[in-house]
Specification:
Blueprint lengths: L1 H7 L33 H6 L2 H14 L1 H15 L19 H14 L13 H15 L3 E6 L7 E6 L16
Antiparallel strand pairs: 1-2
């Protein structure tokens, strides 16, 4: 219509810019025709496929150099060679630091953190356990560590890390673990 308005000498209406308020990922067209999306939550997506996803992540960590390096960098940069530090800052009734008590607790923890005392099977130190947890969380998305209390351990307790495969998922309740 604006062509006729121009020929007849009538004022030409300016075209309004089309308001574009959407995400680029929300566009539909030939480029996104094979991009299947789901409206379910992440929990709903994983509920029936968690074992498959975990196994694929483990295979990637074994076979892909970038994934291996990522896990190594996590261990090196997050945990480090000496692990996360343990420092006690207990105070006396007057508000001053209890240096003697703090040293006793820190020395006891240092013996607990050694190989043979920290985990129930005696194979890991405190630093090894921290590296195991950070690697497992990055690779599997979760890590499980059981606190085991028993007087047979040097300090009366130890940690028992175990794989997420041993946790019964919703699909397996009432059935034999497959």
């Amino acid at each position: 219509m604006s062509v006729w308005r121009a020929i007849l000498g009538l004022p030409v209406e300016q075209a309004r810019p089309v308001a574009k308020r959407s995400y680029h990922a929300a566009t539909v067209g030939r480029l996104f025709a094979d991009f299947n999306s789901s409206s379910g939550s992440a929990d709903a997506e994983l509920r029936n496929n968690i074992a498959v996803m975990r196994n694929r992540a483990r295979e990637l960590a074994r076979d892909d150099v970038y994934a291996k390096r990522y896990l190594e960098l996590l261990e090196t940069n997050v945990i480090g060679p000496s692990g996360m530090a343990f420092q006690v800052k207990a105070r006396n009734t007057d508000g001053s630091l209890d240096a003697i008590g703090n040293n006793i607790i820190e020395n006891a923890f240092a013996t607990f953190a050694q190989v043979g005392n920290c985990t129930a099977d005696g194979r890991m130190s405190w630093v090894d356990l921290q590296k195991y947890v950070i690697r497992t969380v990055a690779r599997d998305g979760e890590a499980f560590v059981q606190v085991v209390r028993n007087r047979s351990f040097v300090h009366g307790l130890a940690f028992h890390p175990f794989e997420a495969d041993f946790i019964v998922t919703g699909k397996q309740i009432g059935r034999a673990h497959v």
